[in-house]
Amino acid sequence: MTATAPQANTPVSAATSLTEAQFSSPFLREAQARGMIFQCTDAQGLDALMAAGPVTAYVGFDPTADSLHVGNALSIMMLRLLQKHGHRPIAIAGGGTARIGDPSFRDEARALMTAETIARNLAGIEASLRQFLDFETHGQDGRAGALLANNADWLDRLSYLDLLEDVGVQFSISRMLSFESVKQRLEREQGLTFLEFNYSILQAYDFRELHRRHGAVLQMGGSDQWGNIVSGIELARRTDGARLFGLTTPLVTTASGAKMGKSAGGARWVRKEKLPVFDYWQFWRNTEDADVGRFLKMFTDLPVEECARLGALEGAAINEAKKILATEATAICHGREAAEEAARTAGKVFSGGGMGEALPEKSLPASLFVSGLPAFKLFQEAGLASSGGEARRLIRGGGARLADRPVSDENQLITSSDFQDGLLKLSSGRKKHLLVRLASD
């Protein structure tokens, strides 16, 4: 660790180099070993503080949808790891800042959401977080329960003039224009509204408020949040003389360069109401060979040494490591029983002839099949093709199967007699499968 620990009245100017950092606190030591740390404002100071006793740290989540997704997974895993080592995690649902939208590294402004949409999304974010974090305090092992907060609780009460007087004077326009996220937006000539420009100020206010209310001394987030995190540290230093810290996680991309969690099928949601457990398991099973060891370290609780061993496997053996990654990552999100059921279903599906209990389902009215439904239309109705033309191309290309049998005629009529106990398995290619269930009209 190369940087000296700044005093409370010393500005934060740069991140500490972490390339050769040797941490003494268990949390930072394990996070570094798992490749979860990208930047830290003062690694030595934070390490000493965390080694001395429990600290409170937080991560913010914007309620832009009614579920978190795989792109949020690394930040969530940081909170899990923090809790594992006896520190207290706070998850902030940005009900207040959602009314503005985070402009960081975006080409254009987010569409403003209604109060009803924000409320619905907040409920979904809370449900997502409860899948990963323990919000109960455990007296026996002393582990503090996670805290869920909503920044609307304090931001909604702010007077604009009071905010300008208290906080506005602490921010330099030239400093804010130097943030990489802002510079990129302006260089693309997309413009940046005054509304969006306030986002960094409000996030900084959040950090100071959480320090005052709950003693939070560390903010964690993705690498795109570095400028916002530093702003919060500077605000608390100037107004309260507080010594706060910032830590960011790396941008996770796949070996082929794609952003983690992005695919042609859309976001990989963590709530089963948005994405079936089997599809979540299958997402991790489809990890590229070169990413297996890295993703095992980041997204499972397996020991680092075991992750490295599994990631070094080659040939057919790496597929077994992928199954372990899929099952362990799914168990964290959906529970061990659901994860193992998804693994068993995958075994049945890919060994041929099996339907499996964990396959996603689509209910279609039985009346559709009275006179027979053309095969291409069935694939469209089931959601395995976005249009009739796409369904026809799938069949013509040999990628469509019904009950594990290839479909050769796109106009083949499918009737209720093709169903087994009211179920029919559909497959698109080798990796997308679902069950169609006959439903009464």
Automatic annotation (TrEMBL):
Pfam families attached to this UniProt entry: tRNA-synt_1b
Q: Which CDD domains match?
A: S4 (cd00165), TyrRS_core (cd00805)
- 'KMSKS' region: where is this motif? 259-263
- PROSITE patterns hit by this protein: AA_TRNA_LIGASE_I (PS00178), S4 (PS50889)
Q: Where does ATP bind?
A: K262
Q: Does this UniProt record's set of keywords contain Protein biosynthesis?
A: yes
Recorded GO terms, molecular function? ATP binding; RNA binding; tyrosine-tRNA ligase activity
Quote the EC number: 6.1.1.1
The entry's keywords:
Aminoacyl-tRNA synthetase, ATP-binding, Cytoplasm, Ligase, Nucleotide-binding, Protein biosynthesis, RNA-binding
Q: What top-level class of enzyme does the UniProt entry assign? A: ligase
Family in the record = Belongs to the class-I aminoacyl-tRNA synthetase family. TyrS type 1 subfamily.
Q: Which PANTHER family match?
A: TYROSINE--TRNA LIGASE, MITOCHONDRIAL, TYROSYL-TRNA SYNTHETASE
Entry protein name = Tyrosine--tRNA ligase
